[in-house]
Amino acid sequence: MPVPGAYEPELEFSDPSAVRETALFSFNPLVYLYFMLSFLIVPYPLYWCIARRLNWETNEKSMARHWSDMFHGFSYGTLLFVFGNYTHAYSWITVVAFYPMLFGYGWIAELPFTKTSLPNIKNWPFGMWAVFLTAIVIILAFAAFHIYWAAIHPLPFVIYYTAPKPSSPAAQEEGQADSAAAGDGAQHDASQEVLVTQIPEPTNPYTKKISMHLHHWQIFYMLAYFTRFTHPVSQVGAGIVLACYMEGICAYGYDQLLND
Fold first, then answer.
1. How many whole angstroms separate alpha carbon 2 and alpha carbon 67?
2. Where are the domains of the chain?
3. Which residue windows are transmembrane per the record (predicted)?
4. Contact (Cβ atoms closer than 8 angstroms) between residue 211 and residue 229
5. Contact status, residue 226 vs residue 148, Cβ threshold 8 Å
6. How, if at all, do strands 211-212 and 258-259 pair?
7. Helix (H) or strand (E) holding 80
C-alpha cells in the first residue's frame, strides 16, 4: 500500500485541543453532536412545550413546519459550528449561559411594552426603548471585548472583526455594465415615448412592493460567528447570542427577510 507523500495531506477530523483560536473553520463529529444536542435538539421542543404551557406568543406550527424548522436548524447550525470554530470554542460555560437566557428572552418578549417589532420603531413605547438601548449597550460592550481580543492575535485575524468587505472587481464591472445598459435603455425608452403612450399598458406582475423585515434571530445568528474564543467572556457571549437566536426559531421559525 503506497504511503502518502508529504504533499498529500490526510483528511482527518479536528482535534479540539489542537485547534487554534484563529482557525477559520474546524469540525469534530463528537463535539458537533454535543453542540446540536445543546443548542437545537433539546431546546427546540423544550422551549415550545414550556411556551405553549405558559401561553407565550408563538406561531402556529404544523408538524410539517416543525420538521422544516428542525432541518433548517441543522443546516444553519452546521455552518455556524464549522465556520464559527465551535469545535474549539464549545464549552459548558456557553451551555450554562444559554438556557437561562433562552427563557429570559422569551419572558422579556412577553412584557406588554415589548410586544412590537422593528418595522414599528416609530411607535415604540418608553419601555421598549429602554430594553432596546440596554441590549445595544450590552452588544457594544461584548463587541469591544471581542475586537480587543482579536487584536491581540496575529494579523490578519482582527480584520475579520473590523474591516468592511470590499467589492470584487467582477462585481464592479458588472455594475458598470448594468449602468451602461440602463442608460441605453433609458434613451431607447425616451425615443419611443410617444408610441408607448398610445398603446394600453399591460399588467405588470412585478409591481408589488417589497419590504424588508429584519428578525432578531437573523441578527443574533450572525453575531454567533464572532463569539468564537475560549475566554469565559466570549463563551458567555456565545450562550447569550445562541439563546436569542434559538428563541426566535423556537417561537416563530425561520421567517423570510424580504416580504412582498
1. 46
2. 21-115+125-155+211-259
3. 31-50, 92-114, 126-149
4. no
5. no
6. antiparallel
7. helix 63-83
Nearest in space to 54 (alpha carbons), one of 243, 240, 251: 251
Question: Is the pTM higher than 0.85?
Answer: no
Phi and psi dihedrals of 194, rounded to 5? -65, -45
3-state secondary structure 205-223: CCCCCCEECCCHHHHHHHH
Closest by alpha carbon to 218, among 235, 241, 192?
A: 241
Indicate if the pLDDT at residue 191 is higher than 90. Answer: no
CA distances from 12 to 15, 29, 74 (A): 9, 11, 22
Are 12 and 61 in contact, with CB atoms under 8 Å apart?
no
Distances (CA, A) of 115 to 77, 121, 246: 28, 12, 18
Confidence of residue 90 (pLDDT cuts 50, 70, 90): very high
Q: How many residues does the chain have?
A: 260
pLDDT tens figures, 28-47: 999 999 999 999 999 999 99
Of 211, 222, 214, 247, nearest in space to 59 by CA: 247
Query: How far is Cα 154 from Cα 36, in angstroms, rounded to an integer?
Result: 31
